[in-house]
Every structure is written in C-alpha cells, then in structure tokens.
Amino acid sequence: MQDQKLSGRRLDAVVVGAGFGGMYMTHLLVQKGLSVRGFERGDDVGGTWYWNRYPGCRCDVESMEYSYKFSEELQQEWEWSERYSPQPEILAYANHVADRFDLRRHFSFQTSVTAARYCEGDAVWEVETDTGEVIEARYLIMATGCLSAANMPDFPGLETYGGPTYHTGAWPKEGVDFAGKRVGVIGTGSSGIQSIPFIAEQADHLTVFQRTPNFSVPARNMPLDPELAASIKANYAQFRADAYQQPAAFGAHFPRSEDSVLDATPEEREVRFEKYWELGGFVFLSAFEDIGASLETNKFAADFVRKKIGEIVTDPKVADLLCPDTVIGCKRLVADSGYFETYNRANVDLVDVSSSPIERFTPDGLEACGRSFDLDAVVFATGFDAMTGALLRIDIQGRNGLSLRDKWSAGPRTYLGLASAGFPNLFMMTGPGSPSVLANMVTGIEQHAEYIAQAISWADDHKVSAFEAELDAENRWVEIVNLRSEETLYPQCNSWYLGANVPGKPRVFMPFLGFPDYVAMVDEVAAKGYEGFRSG
Ligand code: NA7
C-alpha cells in the first residue's frame, strides 16, 4: 500500500511521530487491519533518539530495561553492548525495529503535522501537514514525545551572533568538530552534563554558563556483561514483569534499602551512601528508604553528593558553585561520566549566571556578569518545552472549534493522560497526567499503545463514532495527579516536570506518580466499559 494512495480517502488513524511510541502504535493498529498513516518531521525513525545526537548522549535507564518487550524474538535477538546505551546504539535499535516490522512504509518523513480539526458531523479529524496535504482520519494519535520541542531561550541579540549555534535536542546529523574552538555551553541539565566532558576534550577552550547547578552521580557505565545479559534473556518475561511492579517501571534488581536514614549513625550513613555511589546511576536514591520522604531525610543524601563534588573538584570556589542547594531527586537526577572532573581541566571555566542572567549576544560571543566572552560556537543545552510543547505547537481544534492551546492555557488537563474532554477520538501517548517521563518511557509507551488499540477496538465493536473523555472524570483525574505530587518533594524545585524551565509556562506538575497504580486504575476504567469516557 503506497502512502500517497491513501491521501484523499478517509483513514482509520493518523499517528503523529515515528519515535518509539509512534512506531509501536502504528504496528499495533496495522496488525488490527486498520488503515494508518504516520507523519514524522525527521527523515527517519527514532524520535528523541533521532534528534539528540550530541556527544555523550546516553540513556539513564539501563539497556536491558530500555527496550520493547512486546516481541520475544526482538528482545532475544538484539544485543546491547553497554550498561547504559549510547544514543547511536538506541537509534540503531529503533531502525532495526522499523526494518523488522516493516514500519517505514506507513510513514511520511520530513513532514510535520501543523493543524488538526475535529469535524463533528462526520466524527473525523482533518489533519494538515506542512507539505500541504489534508488527510481525514477517524482517530488521531499524538505520539509526539515528551522531550521533543526544544526550549530555545529568547536571548537578546542572538541574531547578531556570527558563530554557529547548536541545540543539544536538534544536533546536526553530520556531527560537530569543536577542535581548536572556543566553545560556550549554556545549560547544566542532563544534556549539558553529558556533553560537557566530551566538548571539553575537543575544544580549545570551554566556558560553561550555569544558571542552576544540578545533582549528578556517576553512571558507572561499562560494557554490558554478556553473562548478565544472557541470564536476563533466559527469563526476560519475569524480568519485565518484576519491572512492571516498580514505581518507575524499572530497577526491580536495584538493591533497595528499607532502612530509614534517620536510624543510621553518621558512620553507617557514610558507608551506605558510599556503597550506592559506587553502584552508579539512579540506584543512589535507594540507599535509604526515605530519601524522598522529607526535607530532613533528603538533606543527608544531598549533603553526601555535595561532599563528593567538593572532593572531586580541586578549586573550592568552583566546587561551591557546582553544589546545588536544593532537594536531590526533585529535578531529574543526572547520571554522568566524568562531569565534575571536567572542571579540573585547564581549558574549562564555569560562569555563574544565577543572579544576573546572560545579558546579550554580540557578533563575537556573549556578555554576562558584566564580562564579554568571545566564542567561536555556542551550544544550547537548554532543554525542552517538555510534555506539552510538541502537542501545543500543533493547532489542534476539537468540538465547537475548542483549541487545545486555549483549554490548556493554565496547564494541561487530561483524563488518564490519554485524552482530553472536547477532543473526541484523539489520544495522546505518554501525555501529561500519565507516568510518562517518571517511568521507563518504553514501558509506558507499550502500555499506552496497547491501551489505545484496545479502546479503539472496543469503540468499533460498540459502533461508537465519538469516544471522548468526560469533563467530570477529567477534573477528578487532574486532582488525583496533583494530590499525588503534593505528597512528595517534587514541587520543591523549578523542574521541567513542573514546566518551570520555560518562561510563562503554567506551573503544574505533569507526570502521574506511580506506574503500577496507574496501570491498575486505567485497567479498571477499561473493565468498567471505559468509565469516564462518553461514547456517542
Ligand atoms: P534540562 O534538564 O531542562 O536542562 C536545561 C538547562 O538549561 C538547565 O540547566 C537550565 O537552567 C538551563 N537554562 C535554560 N534556560 C536558560 C537560560 N535562559 N539561561 C541559562 N540557562 C538556561 O534539559 P536537558 O536537555 O539537559 O535534559 C532534559 C531531560 O532529557 C533530562 O532530564 C533527561 O530526562 C533527558 P535552570 O535549571 O532552568 O535554571
């Protein structure tokens, strides 16, 4: 079936995005015999892993977990080479999946969806692309990704800057050679922390502009032990089932302590934190059961990391600037490879722009803290308009011309993170109000794709033409998502989970906390005939 031939007739579904979500969603719907057309702005599959090609880019969930489980053959045949997969390997995996399940033929690449309008009479979505096509489909599925709309701050004078600029989330395919260059990196989130050691090695000189220091622990990346991989593969279904029961849908094998940090002596705390620091990655937060429970308990873990930063970084003033004064874990903890050590290099400087922001760009560089910095290239590691950005960049209009941008002007409102009242037959994958970025993304994607495919089958079996979240159910859901976050330390920091990184974005905690609870709740909704959805 040629894509072009589909244009002009009514399809069952349009899927937006060919990342992990869009690929699996398309696969499932095609398997069900539905006519599907996918659109992807990149020239190939991979989504987040297609765009984030910056040096050092690596997943913070371990390789044996960050992969699809829907196909036993796939999970048996694919060989990961490292404990945490580097971006090129994850992209190669995405390509392998596309080849293996023959997915590319359903997608139009280098094509962005610009607008979508729900036509009530026919109960169809009219979908417009930047290539001028208009397609009609009964279902519209947004697999647009949580971290796919780059956040590019509006720096004064940026247009006057004469050198090249790069955003970590839209890195050139051909790579960048920084040899012999004076480079500036703005941003010290995960992307900055992962790329800075690599850029420092290449560049003549690197200046890092830091607005907020971040907690980071060593990833302890290493080649994946073939025996470990084989033992997981021998019992992969159980390994996945165990992960499914974890709050973030990964890490069942983590040695989680059940001890309170308050019951430990200072010496015991030190020994325990040291042990977990050596293990590498997110497991650090499992050193004690209650690190996330209160500001008091959290401070022990935060103090330990601050102490480590002081030991690694030789200049005490620089070490001090690199020490966050916030809660550990409420911004995403970063797993690094030699980040703090990089500041001991003679060719690296740290500039604190916390109290006075970067003033302006000039033709030769930028001005900050009353100083001029001459820069041959600038890297923006400034993150994303997370979770809502990619959805709201599309002009989506539901019933009676209701615009999603207007409806969400005070923050996203969804039912189950899957649908929004007033937008029948539109599903979001890993949308705000679902576990999304606070769970293993691939697992969340599979759960959503399967749920959406089943909901569509149910609607078709019941001759439902408009399947829509009810406003009351949505309001209750938003309350549940908020209450769950308020019981935690997450609201304490200005994180992208709250939209706090984008000027003017409403401060709303977007992910649903607790993957197993979420699955139980949405399964109950389905078991009760999709309670909370109106089916007309
Ligand atoms: P993040 O974690 O949002 O980090 C972005 C960084 O950019 C962060 O340090 C920001 O400081 C900084 N930033 C943003 N705007 C500015 C301006 N105007 N001036 C100076 N500094 C600025 O994005 P990442 O791409 O690193 O990581 C996103 C996720 O991808 C990550 O959590 C993993 O899940 C993978 P701020 O902290 O806002 O003060």
What would you note in describing this structure?
By secondary structure, the protein is α/β, with parallel strands linked by helices. The protein folds into two domains: 296 residues, FAD/NAD(P)-binding domain, CATH 3.50.50.60; 121 residues, 3-Layer(bba) Sandwich (FAD/NAD(P)-binding domain). It has 17 helices and 20 strands. Strands 1, 2, 3, 4, 5, 6, 17 and 18 form an eight-stranded mixed beta sheet that branches. The protein has a five-stranded parallel beta sheet with strand order 7-16-8-9-12, with helices on one face. Strands 13-14-15 form a three-stranded antiparallel beta sheet, with no helix packed on it. α2 packs parallel to α15. The longest helix is centred in the C-terminal third of the chain and has 21 residues. The two termini are 31 Å apart. Ligand NA7 binds next to α6.
Extract low-pLDDT stretches.
1-6
Structural domain count: 2
Figure out the total of helices.
17
- Reported by name, the CATH topology of the largest domain is FAD/NAD(P)-binding domain
Strand-residue proportion: 15-25%
User: Can you list the ligands bound to this structure?
Assistant: ligand NA7
Outline type: globular
Q: Could you name the CATH class of the largest domain?
A: Alpha Beta
Structural class: alpha/beta
Would you report the number of β strands?
20
